[in-house]
Amino acid sequence: MINFLVVGTQRTGSSALAELMGLHPDVVCGWESTQETVVYEKIRVAEEVLAGNFSSLEASERSYLESVYNDSKKALGFRRLFRSSNKWLLHPRFAPALHVDRLEPHIEWLKRKRNDIRIVHIVRVDNLAWLKSMGLSKTSGLFFGQKYPDETQFQWNLATAEKRVRSKHWA
User: Fold this and answer.
1) Closest Cα to residue 171, out of 90, 118, 93?
2) Hey, is 66 helix, strand or coil?
3) What SS3 state is found at 39?
4) Which of the ends of the chain has fewer CB neighbours closer than 10 A, N or C?
C-alpha cells in the first residue's frame, strides 16, 4: 500500500487534485482528515488513517472512507493543509496558526518516522491569483466547486497581503 499526503496552503488546488486522485479505482483519498483534530492528536490520527483505521474521524468522512477502502486499493492518503497566516512577528515560523496546525512536528514526523509516505506538495505560484481566490472565498463564504457571484468585491490591506504571501512561501 502506498501512503500519501497532499499538502499545501489553502486555495492552492489541493481539494481539486485530491478529488481527481480519489477517482482512480486503485486510490482512496480522504478529506482534510486531521483538520478538526485536537492539536496534540493530529499526528496520531494521521498515523491511524494511513493504517486504514478511520475510527478517529468525523462520522461523514469515516463512513465515506469505510465504504471505498478495501484490500484491493493500492494507495491511501488525505489532504493536510497549513495556514498562511498574516499574524506573526519577525518570521512566518512564529505564526500561532502554524503552531496550531503543527507544521514543524509534521515535518519532523515525516523526516524521521515515515519516509514511506509520498508527499504531493502543491504550490500556487501566481500570488495575485492566490490572494484573489482567498479574498473571494472569505468574502463570499463559497469554497470548493462553487462559483463566486460576479458582483463580489473585497479589499486587501497591502501589508496583510504581503505577510500572507511570505507565510505561504515559507510554509
Assistant:
1) 93
2) helix
3) helix
4) N
Please list, in sequence order, all residues whose beta carbon lies within 8 angstroms of the beta carbon of residue 107, skipping any fewer than 6 positions away.
Answer: none
Strand order in the sheet with 75-81: 27-29, 75-81, 2-8, 117-121
Cα(35)–Cα(15) distance, rounded to whole angstroms? 13
CA distance 11 to 106: 20
Chain centre to alpha carbon of residue 73? 22
Q: What is the pTM of this model?
A: 0.84
Query: What angle, rounded to 10 degrees, do the helices at 158-170 and 127-140 form?
Result: 110
Q: In what helix (H) or strand (E) does residue 78 lie, and over which residues does it extend?
A: strand 75-81
**46/148: higher pLDDT:** 46
pLDDT single digits (tens) 114-138: 888 999 999 888 998 888 888 888 8
| pLDDT over threshold 90, residue 67 | yes
Can you give the pLDDT at residue 37? 86
**H helical segments located in the chain:** 14-23, 42-50, 59-68, 96-101, 103-112, 127-140, 158-170
Average pLDDT rounded to a whole number, residues 18-37: 90
